[in-house]
Write a structure and sequence with these properties.
The protein is mostly helical. It has 17 helices and 2 strands. A two-stranded antiparallel ribbon has the order 1-2. Helix 1 packs antiparallel against helix 17 and helix 2 (34-57) packs across helix 15 (313-338). The radius of gyration is 21 Å and the shape is globular. The model is unreliable at 259-269 and 279-305 (pLDDT under 50).
C-alpha cells in the first residue's frame, strides 16, 4: 500500500477531534467525584476499547502479542506508565503556572519531544531528517506548530488579564515560576512518552502485518499494551484519591452520601493531551450547574450537599463509557494516520498535537469560553489557529515530498 499523506493528515484531524471532544459527556455525569468518573471512563479508554477493537480488526491479536519479545512488551507498557506520570503532574503545572502558560509550556514540550525524540533515539535524525529536503520541511512544520502553541498561550494570558483580580487569583492560586517550569518539563516529556511507546512497538506492528493485518490497522495491535501501562498509573492514582476522599462507594451507592468530599486540585489531573478538552468543559457556562449533586468548583474548592440525593447510576456509566470510548478513538485514528505518513511517521505527533488544540479551541469558541476575553485575545487565538492549521499542511507536504522522490 502506497502511503497517502493527505489521507494521513485527515485521519489525524479526526483523532484530534475525538481528543478535544471526549470530555463533553462528563458534563452530564452527576454526583460522582472526579476520580470515580475518570476511572470508570478510563476502563473503556485503556482496557475495553483497545482490546475489543484490536481483537476484531487485526489478525490473531493474542497470537501476535504472545510471539512478541517480552522486552518489547515491557518497554511499550513502561512508556505507557511514563505517559501516565505526565498526566498526574499536569495538574501541578496548572497550579504553579496557571492554565494558559502551563498549557503552552507543557504542550510545546510534549509536541517537540514526542516528534523529535523517536528519530533521535533511533539514530536517523541526521541522515533522514536534517540531510533531506522532506525532513527539513517537516522540521519547519514542527517549528510552526510550536509557534502556534506559543501564540495560543499568549491568547490565554490575554484572556486571563481581562478577568477581575478575584478571578485571576482563583485561576492561579499558588503561582511559582521555578516549580512550575520544573514540573512542566517533567509533564511535557513524560506525556510525550506515548509517541515513544508507539515507536518502540514496531516489532508488534511487523508481527501483525505478517499475520495478514492490513497496513492501515497495524498500530491497533500496539495500543492494548501501551494503554495497559497508562491504565496502571491512572488506576493507582484514582485508588489513592478514593482512599483520601472516601469516594470508593460511588461506584455502587445509588445515593450520594453527605460526607462525600471532592478535592479541588484533582479535577485538573489528566494527561497533557487532554488539556484542551478539559479546559473547554470545566470553563464553559453551566459546568458546575449541570453536574448536579456536590458541586465542583475547580478554582475555589468544593461544596457538599447536606441532603443525600439519588445518583443516576445507569446514566453515569453510559456517559463514562461514551467519554472513554471517544478518548480511545483519538489513537484509533492516530495509528491509522501514522500508517499513511511513510518513513516520516514520527511527524504524526505534531499533527496530533496541533489537531487537539485546533478542535479544543473551536469547542471553546462554540461554548462561549472566550466570551468577554477581549479583542486582543481573539486576534491571538485566530492567529494561533491559522499557524496550527498551517503546520499540519506543511508537515503533510513534507511527507508528500518524501514519497514523491
Amino acid at each position: 500500500m502506497t502511503p497517502n499523506p493527505a489521507l494521513g493528515v485527515g485521519l489525524h484531524w479526526l483523532g484530534g477531534l475525538a481528543s478535544a471532544s471526549f470530555y463533553v459527556p462528563y458534563r452530564w455525569v452527576k454526583r460522582w467525584s472526579w476520580e470515580t468518573f475518570w476511572l470508570a471512563g478510563g476502563i473503556f479508554s485503556w482496557i475495553v476499547a483497545p482490546w475489543i477493537l484490536g481483537w476484531l480488526i487485526t489478525r490473531d491479536l493474542i497470537a501476535v502479542l504472545s510471539a512478541t519479545p517480552r522486552t518489547t512488551l515491557f518497554e511499550v507498557a513502561f512508556f505507557g506508565m511514563l505517559w501516565g506520570v505526565g498526566g498526574l503532574t499536569y495538574g501541578l503545572t496548572m497550579r504553579y503556572l496557571g492554565l494558559s502558560l502551563g498549557m503552552a509550556v507543557v504542550l510545546g514540550l510534549c509536541a517537540a519531544f514526542g516528534t523529535l525524540a523517536p528519530p533521535i533515539l533511533h539514530g536517523v535524525f541526521v541522515s533522514q531528517v536534517l540531510a533531506t529536503l522532506s525532513g527539513r520541511i517537516i522540521l519547519l512544520g514542527v517549528f510552526v506548530c510550536l509557534l502556534g502553541i506559543s501564540v495560543a498561550g499568549l491568547a490565554g494570558l490575554s484572556k486571563e488579564r481581562a478577568m477581575s483580580p478575584a478571578e485571576q487569583k482563583a485561576v492561579i492560586r499558588e503561582f511559582n515560576l521555578r516549580k512550575g517550569i520544573a514540573v512542566a518539563i517533567l509533564s511535557g516529556v513524560m506525556s510525550a512518552c506515548f509517541a515513544l511507546g508507539l515507536s518502540w512497538g514496531d516489532p508488534i506492528s511487523n508481527l501483525t502485518l505478517a499475520r495478514g493485518t492490513p497496513p492501515i490497522w497495524q498500530g491497533l495491535a500496539i495500543l492494548p499494551v501501551l494503554l495497559l501501562g497508562g491504565f496502571l498509573t491512572n488506576f493507582v492514582w484514582c485508588v489513592i484519591l478514593h482512599v483520601r476522599n472516601k469516594s470508593g462507594h460511588e461506584y455502587f451507592n445509588r445515593y450520594a452520601r453527605d460526607d462525600a468530599k471532592v478535592s479541588p486540585n484533582e479535577t485538573t489531573i489528566e494527561t497533557a493531551l487532554d488539556a484542551a478538552s478539559r479546559e473547554v468543559v470545566e470553563h464553559s457556562p453551566g459546568w458546575e450547574r449541570d453536574r448536579g449533586g456536590p458541586a465542583i468548583a475547580v478554582a475555589q474548592g468544593a461544596t457538599v450537599e447536606q441532603q443525600p440525593r439519588r445518583v443516576p447510576m445507569l446514566s453515569n456509566y453510559l456517559l463514562c463509557a461514551l467519554a472513554g470510548t471517544t478518548w480511545y478513538f483519538q489513537f484509533f485514528f492516530y495509528t491509522m494516520g501514522e500508517s499513511q505518513m511513510g518513513r516520516y511517521k514520527f511527524s504524526s505527533w505534531t499533527l496530533h498535537m496541533a489537531s487537539i488544540i485546533i478542535f479544543g479551541s473551536l469547542w471553546g469558541i462554540g461554548l462561549k469560553e472566550w466570551k468577554g476575553a477581549g479583542m486582543r485575545a481573539g486576534w491571538l487565538l485566530t492567529l494561533a489557529l491559522l499557524l496550527l492549521v498551517g503546520s499540519t499542511v506543511i508537515v503533510g507536504y513534507g511527507n508528500y515530498v518524501a514519497i514523491a522522490h
